[in-house]
């Protein structure tokens, strides 16, 4: 057993760190209000920021947008540990190491797409030229995703799509929908779903903004009214979409903002060192010390699940329990961290950003709101617990 | 022993709920939340006409002679409908303080005007140290030609932006015991030298920063005795703390009801999600928190209302209610999922207020420190 | 609203206190058996005390006078229960079950003869029932029970096995749920019986609990013949009777009062115990934990008061009882953990050690608290009841 990184990993970590320090404007990390685990404050949504656009291009040049892809498809072919190192460092500086196209779309096409599709899509995804949004959830298909009703009917060389998607994060800032539709209404729910790519500019696509409780336009309702999509945009085989979506969940296992938790925690701890209570640093208060220490421990535990997941993947093992626990622990961490921040900041916690009295750029105040999205987004904690119980521990389905 | 509401209280509760639901639909609540003033003068007048502002004042001051418990019943309903505005500041922080500590002249001057809806008050207690103990009072009042001059910064002062008068807690003497040498002044909010800045907060409650820069106050405006103001503030804090609990109980009840209703209606996997054990257990935990908070709050309020020593009971109520209501609103969000994460949905209004209430007048750790002291530790 | 007691009620409290001081033998406090820790000696003391309570009318103060009760008001019963628990009176779990579940069910569904026979003896403190509910394959899903009772002539013949039967080896009677119609839906073929534990065919096998005490038993029924008249209520109506009994007045006030006493002892311990030359009560974390559990116990006490008050107003509590039970069990477990943390290393010592603080009570509570929230309808089941009955959520 050896918990240290090897030489190559250490070198890579330094390289990532140097790259970020060189290419990311120095004030970005301070300016960004991204809350780890949250979906409402994802960095790219704050204002589709030219800084981030530029940074993304640099990442693409470096080949790191496709860090998990094999080399033959223009990827960096990095090990899972290295991918984990990359995402950890990136999130520490409050930038994302990819989005739907690079993290989910690309790898899925790599596995299941036709040669033609690979040729058409992979290069531009790798260059960071196209962005996808995840068109999964519908008003009546949230936790029960397999019950989607958006229909796609064949018509010559096209499919014609009708229906509605919701909670479509960043649909307005992306170019294509990475979408599941129902193509066989008579089959069992899981077996009549097809995965495909839909151009946002297609006739009949209407994107309507939804404002989240942090006050940002992060997600949307998207309506599809007789939208024509060429059949060549189907990913893999028709009616196998559910399977691809499930497999794709595994591609995201290391896209966890571990560094973001650490960073935010460090900032809260630093605040506690500097703020005074009765002339003493706040950090000398035994109750607060205890709470800070408790969260530090939980972050450390989450890190262990994180590295363990990467380590297992590199060895070809299937981290069923570990990956689900990692997801669950980190979503709850998002909420615990927000509460810790609120407690340490006390009366100053609920001050919004742009207030001269607001500490830490008002991030804690926003984080207190955004952490809710961590609990309910991308598989609620209840669903995660079911997965752990059923897949991980072999308990029977209820 | 009687743990129920009286007939009059039941009537007050029902009429308050009806009035608030009719006059303060959530759309208006949101508008007021986003507005600069945070209240509607027209509805403020209507509330005064209903006798709410004077509920706990004796009849000779234009009130209806109700008890503190009656006020608790009303505040619970205000919490239930998350009523914005300076009612709490005016009646609990201002009115009750003047009623218990003011001289006859001051009572006659202020209480009838509060009761008629003509005067809005607040209490300027906390400072940038954001603490509720006497040692935290650094705003100075010094004598000058028989009158006083106030200098200092007050922070997190609720509703100061619309207040006509501010009860300002100042230090007038440096004593060994920080509780000595505190004086409370009734300060005209329009006095020269007062600068009030609205803070933008999580709950959109109108908390303010007030800078007092050589603000002159006549000696007559001292509330109670000079240098002995802390006993007044301790008493007010006790009432305000339990009053805040009542508000929180009301909003937690509303959040619970919303979540339960949604759990019955929302169908996933071909069943209402409320039929899933995980959701049922969440709901069971929520109702336990709400019911527990309600009765522990009632008990503390009853003690205050009866004039019995209540330090322990009030701290117990706040320690529990603050955390319980935060848990309830968070679980409600968990049940609502993504829809609750939208600005258009009402739930976040409750979630925001829960945190504000938890912090106000001392969070649960602060309250437990009081409980420990009262237990003899 | 009024949270105070009347002068007469306060006097009653004083009377109870004085009586308890006089009547509880000193030996009892030396033995200090916690939950599930009865020994033969402690059992004898509590049987004796049960009779004393009965003579005083305080064992079953709620019962109608004609069956030996006092028809005491709800508030006075609350006070009585609070004082009994706070003063650690020798009242065993089985006595409470007998008085609060079994006899009231007989009162509701029994024949006049059964009432005269059993209820008066319960009120006088002469008999104890054990519960014959759970079976190896019928725990939370109690209605799945399989023990059979078959009518043969003037008798019922019982065959089957019960488990977790607490103090079955010391009880006089078993309050038995058995299946009388195997063809009916599972809730509709159950009947309730009174079985004398001395009846031939009953075999009792002890189960040693985690406190290393014999409190639970497996009870085997092998052609056990009981007279027909021992059926209580209607045949095949047992499930309904059993569910009603779950709703009988259980205000959990005893739990709150017992815990209040423990909290006071922990506060005292914290004040007297020094670490690094300073009383541990100066440690802000200790203060926070003790205050926190005191807050929770006070919330619990108010929930209990509310239930008593609801009864006094004829408002029938339903989900409120479940809520209080679940909450009580959670506070118990947290208290045990808080106590263990405050006692630190010393918390591990059992009462026979001279180093053991508080007679090892906290450690034993740490173990016995595991049984709470498991028996008598687990916390999970209680939460379902709260959700469905209290909040109207649909059945899963």
Regarding CATH, which class of the largest domain in chain A? Mainly Alpha
How many separate domains of chain A?
A: 3
Radius of gyration of chain C: 22 Å
What composes the largest sheet of chain C? 4 strands, mixed
Per DSSP E runs of 2 or more residues, the count of β-strands of chain C stands at: 10
Q: Order of strands across the widest beta sheet of chain C? A: 1-4-5-8
State the secondary-structure class of chain C.
alpha+beta
Mean pLDDT of chain C: 92
Label the structural class of chain A: alpha+beta
Which segments of chain A are poorly predicted (pLDDT under 50) over 5 or more consecutive residues?
none
Question: What is the total number of structural domains of chain C?
Answer: 3
CATH architecture of the largest domain in chain C: Up-down Bundle
- Please name the CATH architecture of the largest domain in chain A: Up-down Bundle
Shape of chain A: globular
CATH class of the largest domain in chain C, named Mainly Alpha
Mean pLDDT of chain A: 90
Classify the helix fraction of chain A into a percent range: 40-55%
List the helices and strands and how they pair.
The complex is a heterotrimer of chains A (398), B (377) and C (396).
Chain A: H1 7-23, H2 28-31, H3 50-62, H4 80-92, H5 100-112, H6 115-126, E1 132-135, E2 151-155, E3 158-165, E4 176-182, E5 193-199, E6 205-211, E7 217-230, H7 241-251, H8 258-274, E8 276-277, E9 280-281, H9 286-314, H10 320-345, H11 363-376, H12 381-392
Parallel strand pairs in A: 1-4
Antiparallel strand pairs in A: 2-3, 3-7, 4-5, 6-7, 8-9
Helix pairs in contact in A: 1-4, 4-8, 4-9, 5-6, 5-7, 8-9, 8-10, 9-10, 10-11, 10-12
Chain B: H1 7-23, H2 26-34, H3 41-49, H4 68-80, H5 87-101, H6 104-115, E1 121-124, E2 140-144, E3 147-158, E4 165-171, E5 182-188, E6 194-198, E7 207-217, E8 222-223, H7 230-265, E9 267-268, E10 271-272, H8 277-306, H9 311-336, H10 347-359, H11 364-374
Parallel strand pairs in B: 1-4
Antiparallel strand pairs in B: 2-3, 3-7, 4-5, 5-8, 6-7, 9-10
Chain C: H1 7-23, H2 26-31, H3 40-56, H4 74-86, H5 93-109, H6 112-123, E1 129-132, E2 148-152, E3 155-162, E4 173-179, E5 190-196, E6 202-208, E7 214-227, E8 231-232, H7 238-246, H8 253-272, E9 274-275, E10 278-279, H9 284-312, H10 319-343, H11 361-368, H12 379-390
Parallel strand pairs in C: 1-4
Antiparallel strand pairs in C: 2-3, 3-7, 4-5, 5-8, 6-7, 9-10
């Amino acid at each position: 057993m050896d918990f240290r990184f090897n030489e190559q990993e250490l070198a890579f970590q330094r390289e990532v760190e140097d790259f970020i320090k060189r290419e990311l404007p120095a004030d970005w990390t301070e300016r960004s209000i991204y809350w780890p685990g949250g979906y409402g404050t994802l960095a790219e949504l704050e204002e589709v920021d030219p800084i981030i656009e530029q940074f993304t291009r640099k990442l693409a040049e470096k080949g790191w947008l496709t860090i998990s892809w094999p080399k033959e498809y223009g990827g960096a072919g990095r090990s899972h540990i290295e991918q984990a190192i990359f995402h950890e460092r990136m999130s520490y500086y409050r930038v994302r190491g990819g989005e739907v196209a690079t993290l989910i779309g690309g790898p899925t096409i790599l596995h299941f797409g036709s040669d033609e599709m690979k040729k058409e899509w992979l290069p531009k995804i790798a260059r960071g030229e196209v962005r996808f949004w995840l068109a999964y959830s519908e008003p009546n298909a949230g936790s029960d995703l397999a019950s989607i009703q958006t229909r796609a009917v064949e018509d010559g060389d096209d499919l014609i799509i009708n229906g509605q998607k919701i909670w479509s994060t960043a649909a307005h800032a992306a170019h294509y929908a990475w979408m599941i539709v129902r193509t066989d209404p008579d089959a069992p729910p899981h077996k009549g779903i097809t995965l495909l790519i839909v151009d946002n500019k297609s006739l009949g696509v209407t994107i309507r903004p939804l404002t989240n409780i942090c006050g940002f336009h992060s997600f949307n309702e998207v309506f599809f009214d007789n939208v024509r999509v060429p059949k060549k945009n189907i990913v893999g085989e028709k009616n196998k979409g559910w399977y691809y979506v499930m497999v794709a969940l595994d591609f995201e296992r290391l896209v966890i903002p571990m560094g973001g938790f650490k960073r935010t925690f460090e900032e809260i701890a630093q605040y506690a060192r500097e703020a005074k209570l009765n002339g003493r640093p706040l950090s000398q208060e035994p109750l607060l010390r205890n709470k800070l220490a408790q969260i530090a421990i939980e972050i450390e535990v989450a890190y262990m699940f994180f590295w363990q997941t990467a380590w297992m993947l590199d060895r070809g093992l299937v981290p069923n329990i570990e990956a689900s626990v990692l997801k669950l622990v980190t979503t709850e961490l998002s909420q615990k961290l927000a509460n810790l921040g609120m407690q340490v900041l006390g009366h100053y916690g609920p001050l919004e950003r742009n207030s001269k009295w607001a500490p830490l750029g008002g991030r804690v105040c926003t984080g207190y709101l955004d952490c809710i999205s961590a609990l309910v987004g991308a598989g609620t904690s209840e669903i995660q617990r079911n997965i752990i119980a059923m897949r991980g521990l072999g308990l029977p389905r209820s | 022993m009687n743990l129920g509401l009286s007939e009059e209280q039941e009537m007050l509760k029902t009429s308050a709920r009806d009035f608030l639901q009719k006059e303060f639909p959530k759309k208006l609540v949101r508008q007021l939340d986003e507005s600069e003033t945070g209240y509607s003068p027209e509805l403020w007048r209507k509330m005064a006409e209903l006798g709410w502002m004077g509920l706990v004042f004796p009849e000779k001051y234009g009130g209806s002679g109700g008890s503190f418990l009656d006020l608790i019943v009303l505040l619970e309903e205000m919490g239930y409908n998350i009523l914005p505005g300076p009612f709490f500041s005016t009646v609990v922080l201002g009115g009750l303080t003047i009623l218990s500590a003011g001289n006859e002249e001051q009572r006659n001057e202020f209480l009838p005007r509060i009761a008629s809806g003509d005067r809005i008050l607040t209490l300027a207690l906390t400072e940038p140290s954001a603490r509720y103990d006497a040692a935290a009072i650094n705003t100075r009042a010094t004598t000058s030609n028989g009158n006083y001059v106030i200098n200092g910064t007050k922070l997190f002062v609720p509703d100061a932006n619309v207040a006509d008068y501010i009860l300002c807690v100042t230090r007038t003497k440096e004593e060994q015991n920080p509780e000595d040498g505190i004086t409370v002044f009734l300060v005209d909010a329009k006095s020269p030298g007062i600068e009030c800045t609205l803070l933008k907060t999580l709950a959109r409650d109108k908390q303010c920063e007030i800078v007092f820069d050589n603000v002159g106050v006549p000696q007559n405006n001292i509330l109670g005795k000079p240098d002995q103001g802390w006993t007044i503030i301790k008493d007010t804090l006790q009432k305000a703390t339990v009053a805040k609990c009542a508000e929180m109980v009301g909003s937690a009840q509303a959040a619970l009801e919303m979540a339960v209703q949604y759990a019955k209606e929302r169908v996933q996997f071909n069943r209402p999600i409320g039929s899933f054990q995980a959701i049922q257990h969440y709901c069971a935990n929520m109702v336990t928190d709400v019911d527990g908070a309600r009765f522990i709050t009632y008990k503390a309020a009853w003690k205050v209302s009866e004039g019995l020593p209540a330090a322990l009971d009030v701290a117990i109520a706040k320690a529990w209610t603050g955390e319980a209501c935060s848990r309830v609103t968070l679980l409600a969000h968990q049940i609502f999922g993504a829809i609750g994460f939208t600005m258009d949905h009402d739930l976040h209004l409750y979630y925001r207020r829960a945190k504000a209430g938890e912090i106000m007048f001392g969070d649960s750790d602060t309250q437990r420190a009081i409980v420990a002291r009262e237990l003899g530790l | 609203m009024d949270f105070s007691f009347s002068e007469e009620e306060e006097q009653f409290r004083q009377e109870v206190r004085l009586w308890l001081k006089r009547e509880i033998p000193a030996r009892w406090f030396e033995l200090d058996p916690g939950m599930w820790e009865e020994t033969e000696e402690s059992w004898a003391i509590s049987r004796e005390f049960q009779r004393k309570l009965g003579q005083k009318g305080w064992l079953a103060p709620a019962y109608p006078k004609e069956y030996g009760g006092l028809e005491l008001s709800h508030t006075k019963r609350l006070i009585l229960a609070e004082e009994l628990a706070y003063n650690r009176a020798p009242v065993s779990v089985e006595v409470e079950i007998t008085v609060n579940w079994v006899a009231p069910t007989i009162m509701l569904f029994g024949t006049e003869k059964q009432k005269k026979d059993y209820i008066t003896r319960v009120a006088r403190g002469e008999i104890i029932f054990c519960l014959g509910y759970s079976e190896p394959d019928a725990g939370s899903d109690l209605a799945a029970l399989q023990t059979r009772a078959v009518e043969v002539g003037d008798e019922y013949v019982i065959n089957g096995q019960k488990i977790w039967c607490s103090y079955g080896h010391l009880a006089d009677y078993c309050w038995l749920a058995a299946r009388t119609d195997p063809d009916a839906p599972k809730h509709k073929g159950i009947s309730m019986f009174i079985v004398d534990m001395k009846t031939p065919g009953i075999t009792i096998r002890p189960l040693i609990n985690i406190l290393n005490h014999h409190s639970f038993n497996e009870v085997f029924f092998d052609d056990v013949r009981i007279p027909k008249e021992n059926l209580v209520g209607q045949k095949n109506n047992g499930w309904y009777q059993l569910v009603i009994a779950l709703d009988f007045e259980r205000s959990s006030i005893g739990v709150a009062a017992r815990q209040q006493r423990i909290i006071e002892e922990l506060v005292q311990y914290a004040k007297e115990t020094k670490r690094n030359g300073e009383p541990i009560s100066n440690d802000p974390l200790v203060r926070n934990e003790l205050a926190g559990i005191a807050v929770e116990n006070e919330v619990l006490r108010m929930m209990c008061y509310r239930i008593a008050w609801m009864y006094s107003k004829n408002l029938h509590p339903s989900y409120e009882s479940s809520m209080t039970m679940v909450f009580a069990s959670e506070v118990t477990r947290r208290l045990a953990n808080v106590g263990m943390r405050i006692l630190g290393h010393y918390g591990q010592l059992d009462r026979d050690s001279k180093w053991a603080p508080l007679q090892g009570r906290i450690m034993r509570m740490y173990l016995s608290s595991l049984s709470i929230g498991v028996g008598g309808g687990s916390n999970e089941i209680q939460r379902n009841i709260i959700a469905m009955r209290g909040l109207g959520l649909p059945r899963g």
